[in-house]
Prior knowledge:
This protein is α+β, with helices and mostly antiparallel strands. It has 2 helices and 2 strands, in the order ββαα. The relative contact order is 0.15. It has a two-stranded antiparallel sheet with strand order 1-2.
Amino acid sequence: MGRQVGRGAVLGVPWEVAESLWAFWVMGVDQVQVWLRSRGRVELVEQVGLFGAEVAPLLG
């Protein structure tokens, strides 16, 4: 499972993040807030794209 870095926060490679988010779903959580740390707009857009391409598909 992804590394817990704070209450409800998750850090890890795509499959670890997806596994942790799935665990929240199993507990009854039906909404999450995704906060991506970035150093600027370009990096943030890249991270959103990677999340959508690599994590979201693993969630079904």
